[in-house]
Amino acid sequence: MKFLLDHDVPIDISYCLAELGHAIVRLPEVLDASADDDRVLEYASRNRCVLITCNRDDFLTLAQD
Fold this sequence. Notes:
- The protein has one domain.
- The chain is 49% helix and 17% strand.
- It has 4 helices and 3 strands.
- It has a 3-stranded parallel β-sheet with strand order 2-1-3, sandwiched between helices.
């Protein structure tokens, strides 16, 4: 499984997921720090990533649209 970790996710989460054999993509590796939430969600969807974020409320609203 491939995970996209938002900038607000503690780095320890990526280490744990990687140890379990998952592919990890950190947001700063693929998008500018100024990328808005729409762009982050679009990237995750297009690249078939599970998005992990601490910004739950904003992304729930976007996912419903």
